[in-house]
Design goal:
The complex is a heterotrimer of chains A (about 240), B (about 325) and C (about 290). With about 325 residues, chain B is mostly helical. Helix content of chain B is about 75%, strand content about 0%. In chain B, strands 1-2 form a two-stranded antiparallel sheet. Classes of the chains: A alpha/beta (about 240), B mainly alpha (about 325), C mainly alpha (about 290). Chains in contact: A-C, B-C. Chains B and C meet through α5, α11 and α13 of B and α3, α4, α9 and α11 of C.
Chain lengths: ~240, ~325, ~290
């Protein structure tokens, strides 16, 4: 579904991503692990057209999308839940959710709206509340709900665990799993929180200073002692 | 010891060249060179504030106006000698510069622009309404200094060129000094500057004071050179003119503060264009340079001009 | 006396409010401080003068042409020639670019229409009607009605249309709006078009009250002051700020001296920024830009 080959991205003179190659199969949940500043957000922003690639290809359903602009990529079926949620702070919860359906003109929007608030019942109670008055967990739910409204085939999640209390975190990752199994939406998520990410993923990559340094089935990554100590251990001790 | 005064040589040589050339020039050439000298002073002061210290000021013509009217009024009403009037004009402008500096201290970026814009327009309004002192829109005649043995135009030429060379040299020394480095640090990041122990309050005020002094002195000389001043001459258009000069010359470059006035004034004089066409060409130069070569001619000379062509190409592609 | 001064102040304040709303929309969406907003007001007045008086078209046709031309101007000149080439350059270069464009427009106006001041007649009668102790002319009633109608329409536009929602979304987060599929370039273009039309309406309404001349653009500072009074970036603030400014000006003119009227603008602007830079409705974080 998503095939990235030898992708490089530069910020000015700094190489943010170098020769990144990865695949996400249809229907899978795949994660990209790595510490802060490894280039995870850069990778997602490049996929969704917010950043320009210096070299390499990104294919979605076999179609080259490098060079397409941000607002065009959503229409192809890729929704991106950005870093730090990036909600519309002065809009209500309802308006935020409906902004997710901006590209759509079909008559199933209302039904999808109902489905989103079924996933996140708490949002249903707060439909007219202004987004920036929500708690961190509610904001993350809103950001995911908003992205679902575009009916994506591929959902990109940027650190959904960021700043969440443990119970909220479990709740959100449970929904992420359900989105994948019930809707059949392919999920590509970048995370610092290895344990949680690998628990919902079938395959994982490890990114370090812009390069992929390891990849394997999620179960193997969890069991690989070297990986655990070198890369994943960091986040364990940080928890 | 000789080494530490080596910077004196180049300006001294320039002074000698201009002094020797002076007597063979006709009145028109003397006038144009004097006008360029006045604007070099004005632009240098503006560039210290905008280009070096990064304070976005769009009311700079107010200092020119304050200097011009102070010089005229002090000479007419108090019979002060010319040199004293010019220095007093500079000092008065500094007082206003400090006042504006204090008002804008808590503000950043375009808020500075808004306050200084309002300040510039207030000065023009006061000058046109305070008729007892300024004669309102009728304007004021300004006396010319008399130097025995020199024609009035040649005297103005020596005064303006001499002052310009001294003040430009002073600006070069300033830029190379601790103060100049503090200006640049503040422009790049006030937070970083204050972390480095640079007092942003002090240096921002210094920048306003110095640029106001340059503006005041330039205003006094301009009034004397033109022999007649009206409030209208100091409207926003005048600030845009000097903004054009430093943008095409090069923001944050002393050389740019000399190149800009030469181009803008010679351009206007050679083409003999009307006021309206001058406004249009200045505006077009300003817009063109800020898009294609935001660091001005001095910047183009430093970097490769291929940057410019690349920029033109990418603009054309995007359109 | 006081009620008369207040009424006159509110009337002119309505026009300032309209211009300031356009200015604020542009600031919110494109992060551009529109330093040529006064020149947009000016071209509105000159366009109407040309279509209505010079070409002798019926008023409504001339008005429609004026607004269309202003919109086209907003797109072709501000959006394509200034805003877009400087979008990645930062706020200050955009301000400088707009100042350059303002100078070009002023010079062109002087060449095309001459340096003389024109008087733009009123669309409606200027014979005062007496309402209680207050005299008001039909033109002034029109100004208030038009302002209220336009602000109402804008509100509906922002709340209930797709483009209006996209404009609000863009001003809250450009990145998120892009990710939702909003084409930011279209939003910017639409903002320049609407903002310029609002300024032009300001010029159409101000024309009969002031003189139309190439320096008319200097009243752009009134819209900056209105925006500053209300709190930069706040649309309700721009409306309240505009009306407050109109009233203050008329108080100064009525009780102090008529030719000090403009000083009210400058003094208000400098005082507010010196004492409370966030204005009446501004958010503290935005004001610290």
């Amino acid at each position: 579904m998503l095939e990235i080959e030898r992708l490089s991205v530069r910020h000015g003179n700094i190489t943010a991503l170098a020769d990144v190659t990865l695949r996400v199969e249809p229907g899978a949940t795949v994660c990209m692990l790595g510490a802060n500043g490894a280039g995870k957000t850069t990778l997602l922003n490049t996929i969704s057209g917010l950043l320009k690639a210096a070299a390499g290809t990104i294919r979605f359903d076999g179609r080259e999308i490098v060079g397409a602009r941000g607002h065009e990529i959503v229409r192809l079926g890729i929704s991106h839940v950005p870093e730090r949620r990036d909600l519309f702070p002065d809009m209500s919860v309802r308006e935020n959710i409906m902004m997710g359906a901006y590209t759509r003109a079909d008559d199933e929007v209302d039904a999808d709206f109902d489905q989103v608030v079924t996933y996140f019942p708490i949002l249903k109670e707060r439909l007219s509340q202004i987004a920036n008055t929500l708690s961190g967990g509610e904001q993350q739910m809103l950001a995911i709900g908003r992205a679902l409204m575009a009916k994506p085939r591929l959902l990109l999640l940027d650190e959904p665990s960021l700043g969440l209390a443990p119970q909220v975190l479990d709740q959100i990752f449970e929904i992420i799993e359900r989105i994948n199994t019930e809707n059949g939406t392919t999920i590509f998520l970048v995370e610092q929180n290895t344990q949680v990410a690998l628990a919902v993923s079938s395959y994982g990559y490890v990114l370090e200073t812009g390069k992929i340094v390891a990849e394997d089935k999620a179960a193997n990554l969890l069991e690989n002692d070297l990986i655990r100590r070198s890369y994943l251990g960091i986040s364990e001790s940080a928890e | 010891m000789a080494g530490s005064f080596s910077w004196l040589r180049a300006p001294a040589a320039l002074l000698v060249v201009f002094a020797v050339v002076g007597p063979v020039l006709d009145n028109y050439q003397l006038y144009v060179l004097s006008l360029i000298a006045v604007y070099v002073i004005f632009a240098t002061g503006y560039n210290l504030l905008m280009g070096f210290a990064g304070q976005f000021d769009v009311g700079q013509a107010a200092f020119l106006a304050i200097g011009a009217y102070a010089a005229a009024i002090l000479q007419i009403h108090l019979q002060l000698p010319f040199a004293v009037a010019v220095i007093a004009a500079g000092v008065l402008a500094v007082l206003f510069g400090l006042a504006i500096g204090v008002v804008v201290l808590p503000l950043r970026h375009f808020y500075l622009a808004l306050v200084t814009l309002a300040f510039g327009q207030t000065v023009v309004l006061v000058l046109s309404l305070w008729r007892d002192l300024t004669n309102g829109f009728q304007g004021l005649p300004v006396p010319r200094p008399e130097i025995p043995g020199l024609s009035s135009n040649l005297a103005m030429y020596y005064i303006t060129i001499g002052t310009a060379i001294v003040m430009v040299q002073a600006a070069r020394n300033l830029v190379a000094s601790r103060i100049g480095r503090a200006f640049v640090a503040i422009r790049e990041s006030e937070i970083a500057a204050s972390v480095l122990g640079i007092s942003t309050v002090r240096y921002r005020l210094i920048a306003y004071a110095i640029s106001a002094f340059y503006g005041g002195v330039a205003g006094a000389l301009l009034a004397t050179l033109l022999s007649y001043i009206t409030p209208d001459a100091f409207r926003l258009t005048e600030t845009i003119k000097v903004l054009t000069m430093i943008v095409i010359g090069g923001m944050g470059s002393i050389a740019g503060s000399i190149i800009g006035p030469i181009i803008v004034i010679l351009g206007a004089e050679f083409l003999r264009i009307s006021q309206s066409f001058q406004e249009i060409t200045n505006g077009a130069l300003l817009l063109g340079f800020i898009i294609l070569a935001p660091m001005g001619i001095a910047g183009l000379a430093l970097h490769r001009t291929t940057d410019l062509f690349g920029k033109v190409r990418s603009l054309l592609r995007r359109q | 006396m006081l009620s008369q001064v207040l009424v006159n102040g509110v009337v002119i304040g309505c026009i300032y409010a309209l211009i300031a709303v356009g200015f604020t929309m542009i600031y919110n969406a494109t992060e551009t401080v529109h330093f040529a907003v006064g020149e947009s007001v000016m071209i509105g007045a000159y366009f109407l003068l040309t279509f209505w008086i010079v070409w002798d078209l019926p008023y409504l046709v001339a008005l429609a042409l004026t607004l269309l031309s202003a919109g086209a101007f907003g797109y072709a000149v501000y959006d394509r020639m200034v805003s877009r080439p400087l979008m990645s350059a930062g706020l200050l270069p955009r301000v400088v670019g707009l100042m350059g464009m303002a100078a070009i427009m002023k010079g062109l106006t002087r060449i095309i229409w001459g340096a003389d001041a024109y008087h733009l007649p009123s669309a409606l009668s200027t014979d005062p009607v007496r309402i209680g102790p207050i005299f008001i002319v039909p033109q002034e009633i029109l100004i208030v009605v038009v302002t209220v109608a336009i602000i109402g329409l804008l509100f509906l536009f922002f709340q209930h249309t797709k483009l209006g929602t996209a404009m609000r979304a863009t001003s809250q987060s450009r990145r998120a709006a892009t990710l939702m599929g909003v084409n930011i370039s279209v939003v910017f273009a639409a903002t320049w078009v609407i903002g310029t039309i609002l300024s032009a309406i300001g010029g159409v309404l101000l024309g009969p009250l002031l003189l139309v001349d190439p320096d008319m653009g200097e009243l752009g500072i009134k819209s900056f002051t209105a925006a500053v009074l209300g709190g930069f970036g706040s649309l309700p603030g721009a409306i309240v700020g505009g009306i407050l400014l109109g009233v203050s000006e008329n108080l100064v003119a009525g009780y102090l001296r008529a030719d000090w009227q403009n000083a009210a603008t400058f003094v208000l602007m400098i005082t507010v920024l010196a004492i409370r830079p966030t204005g009446l409705f501004g958010k503290p974080d935005k004001a610290r830009v």
